[in-house]
Write a structure and sequence with these properties.
This protein is an alpha+beta fold and about 325 residues long. It has helices spanning about 1-20, 25-55, 60-85, 95-115, 120-145, 155-170, 180-200, 225-235, 270-290; strands at about 180, 205-210, 215-220, 240-250, 255-260, 295-300, 300-310. The protein has a 5-stranded mixed sheet with strand order 2-4-5-7-6, with helices on one face. Strands 1-3 form a two-stranded antiparallel sheet.
Length: about 325
């Protein structure tokens, strides 16, 4: 919807630029066009939202033809309504219909080309490459946590190795396969248990999980890299340690995952931290396009990363 809104308004701005006698008159010309285009655009998006379940079941080309027909019919209806009010005396209905269908066709071509460029095979390959960047770092740090225990606390080292085997299995999942929120939380807790064995009382964890469905599907390895960054960039450098705060809740149709940690001196701008966050951002874009986002909030002595995911996702 955002791309449609932006695309049509860009076309309207270009049309206003062509019609305006000079640059000074461009803004007023655009406002006149927007007064006609915006109602048509918003009504059209509303109708497409209502009809999407029907359109998805149609063959592609027939569905595109239906969208073109809808745009033309709506334009004609709006033109007749404007004419009845005396607002379209000098206009041509066919010109308005052709322009509306041409703009719709341009957007349909753009979405078709975009869909071809982002094929499932390419997306899966990109996800596999992004997950491969996380796995070695994640497993290397987990192994270091175990190695630090072998001589001093062999019993705990054995327990840590059992936990590490579970982490290995989680890391070897198919990157295109979604996991339940419960599995992602369990993986995060196992990782934090390993780090607690290594850091002892220096690491404390505060979990706050709201009234949400733990069966909700989310992409794998969303929470664990955030926890790893919080430990290695927030807790470990501080001699006295600190607390990692994890909050997971749902607001309307949006899942919110927040990880916060104290900072020592400057905020977390280390290269490793930024690479991990860029990795998560790119994976979110591949899974959800524009429906998910990652936000960072820094303060004098705290650093917080928040991920927002749609609670429902259409199966592909």
């Amino acid at each position: 919807m955002l791309r449609v809104l932006l695309g049509i308004n860009v076309l309207a701005a270009l049309a206003a630029l062509l019609q305006a006698p000079d640059l000074a008159g461009w803004a007023s010309q655009y406002l006149e066009l927007a007064a006609v285009v915006q109602p048509l655009l918003l009504i059209g998006l509303g109708l497409l939202s209502l009809l999407r379940d029907i359109l998805w079941r149609l063959p592609l080309r027939f569905g595109q033809a239906c969208v073109l027909g809808l745009a033309g019919a709506m334009t004609a209806a709006l033109f007749f309504y404007a004419a009845s009010l005396g607002l379209a005396d000098n206009g041509s209905i066919w010109r308005a219909v052709v322009l509306a269908m041409a703009a719709t066709a341009l957007l349909l071509v753009y979405f078709d080309l975009r869909a071809r460029a982002i094929t499932p095979v390419l997306s899966e390959a990109r996800l596999a490459a992004l997950n491969a960047r996380i796995r070695p770092h994640f497993l290397f740090n987990s192994l270091n946590a175990v190695l630090s225990l072998i001589r001093a606390r062999p019993q705990q080292a054995e327990e840590a190795l059992e936990a590490l085997s579970d982490l290995f299995r989680a890391a070897m999942r198919d990157p295109g396969e979604l996991v339940s929120l419960a599995d992602e939380i369990a993986l995060g807790k196992q990782y934090l248990e390993l780090e607690t064995l290594r850091l002892g009382d220096r690491l404390t964890v505060d979990w706050k999980i709201g009234a949400i469905s733990l069966d909700m599907p989310i992409p794998p390895l969303m929470l664990q890299p955030l926890l790893e960054n919080a430990v290695y960039h927030g807790i470990e450098p501080a001699p006295e340690g600190g607390t990692v705060h994890i909050a997971i809740d749902q607001r309307a149709q949006e899942l919110r995952i927040s990880v916060a940690n104290p900072t020592v001196g400057q905020a977390q701008h280390a290269a490793g931290n930024q690479i991990a966050l860029a990795n998560i951002r790119e994976r979110l874009a591949l899974y959800y396009d524009l429906e998910a986002r990652l936000e960072i909030e820094t303060a004098d002595h705290s650093y917080e990363v928040r991920i927002f995911l749609p609670c429902q996702r259409k199966a592909h």
